[in-house]
Amino acid sequence: MTAKFGVESIELDDGLEIHGRPISELKQGVNVHCYDDHRIAMAFSVLGTVVKDTVIEEKRCVEKTWPNWWDDLENKVRPHFYFALIITLHRRS
After folding, report:
1. Which end of the chain is more exposed for a tag (fewer CB within 10 A), N or C?
2. Pairwise CA distance, residues 48 & 42, whole Å
3. pTM value?
4. Cβ pair 25, 6 in contact under 8 A
5. What burial class does residue 74 get, using C-beta atoms within 10 Å of its C-beta: 0-12 exposed, 13-18 middle, 19+ buried?
6. What ranges make up the beta strands (E) of 1-93?
């Protein structure tokens, strides 16, 4: 999924090796499909705070572990960064 942002990652037996890039080199306007996994939504929403027009699909998947995640993220991040995240709500098929 990091490849969508232009970030190279290598899957290892025991984790991931991620080769970072400067924020200015990251691709903007990326849609992130979370597969109903709150960890994906949370991790990429943090990245979305600095990458313009990031779209997190299936935002409700975070409700099972952190019901106020989106409010808390905005309240903590907005004073420090441009909040570039676009949160969309898609119906389940």
Report:
1. C
2. 10
3. 0.78
4. yes
5. middle
6. 8-12, 15-19, 31-32, 54-56, 85-87
